[in-house]
Amino acid sequence: MLNFNKVDMRYEPYPIAILRPALDDGLYTTLADNFPDEKIFDVLPKFPYKLSLSEKWAPRNYRRFLRENEPWREFHAYVKTDRFIRDMIEFLADNNVDLPLHEAFETPAKRLKRGLRSIKHGHVPSRGLRLRSRFEFSSLKADGGRVEPHTDAPRKVITLVLSMIKPGEWDTAYGGGLDVNRAKDNRYAYNWQNRMVPWDQIETVETVPFVPNQCIVFVKTHNSLHSVREMTQKNSKALRKSVTVVIEKVL
Amino acid sequence: MIQYQNIRFDYEPYPIGLATPAFAPDLYRAMVESWPPLELFEYKADKGDKYSLSQVNNGRKYRRYVNSTAPWRELHRFIRSGAFIYGAIEMVKRHGVDLGLPIPGFLERLYLKARAIKRGNPVPHYPTLKSRFEFSAMPITGGNILPHTDHPKKLITMVVPILREDEWNAAWGGGTSVVWPKDRSKSFNRMNHYLDFDQVETRKTFPFEPNQCIVFIKTNNSWHAVMPMTGNDPKILRKTLTINIESS
Fold it and tell me: N or C end of chain B: smaller count of CB under 10 Å?
């Protein structure tokens, strides 16, 4: 479903792929038209400017919405497949971002061989690397919404942020673009553990504007520092709507 | 045994530290004097005319030599110890490089695995950390190491030049260089693909000097190389001890 043909890659300070258009126009319009109503989202207690609908936040609404909404049900099912994960990894490898994740797709015979080798060396055989994808609807308020500078949790491997706004629904003057950052302070230069970095300790290398039918693909690295600057549209009801898909290691 | 108190780190484009002096003078002198004879090494023509003596290359000769030579026997014992591994991990953490280790201890790992089996959950995998060292040498007549970023299993690599104070002519080169691909699309290299020298630009070179230890952190972009040396006496060798901490 994702369109990997129109890609704009960045490699410094860390790899980012921008897919635009990310989806076939018809599918994108259908999904944007059917984006869940904000009333069924949870407002995050720590971040009152962020609304989320996912397996973790408002899970009953999330499951019911997917059950009842066919276009989203199909898109969600696609994202949850191994095929999707493989396609993402292959797409990145084709663009010089080769990740050591092949173990996640080893055959049962190879897994058995690995297990037997572990036993031979006196170790409890491990199940090996496992990957899964997570899916979240999220909205940030144009009045005060922001995402603090961070590099993503260590278990994350790839993150996709798919904008989900109808044409004319979001004015880029509101902000909401994704800032690609670099740490000014050496204490934060290597940040595999995803320590939050104070706003005054980052410099923005580039801002990717928040526009319709765009998917930003990140690879988690020690310096994948990114953020969304605070939006300041006082009393605005506008929402920066997106879908976040995370491919992560199962620990 | 390795002295980290004077270590200084650079952080761009990736963390790399230089500790000097790396060893007590007497120990370092003993290491220089007891360097293994070249006939024990395995020649690796495909690795920039490198000679190697390690667990993998001429393993038997390596073990016999290390066990029979006092300074190397003690250093080997230290390098293979958990104290060295966790000491190095703590050291880099103190310098802002938190690798997300250590891993739970043996008994805790065993308990967590047993609990997973009892509950019918998948058995969690905890990488085992290992350390090893390698003697290596390259002739100054063109010896080199191609630009690379180290194998994905490596966590920390330490390179210790082994030479006497008056032994080296800086004009030969031999320094370890932080390099960066001219084609930026090659900068991400977690899988450790190699590049040619003309495909990279040099950001910094650590001159080849006695009693120092260069500490690399393996990252997606930890590009480094030793440019082809320009001396003309093939008997003169660039000798180094390479210490690796890696995960299973």
Answer: C
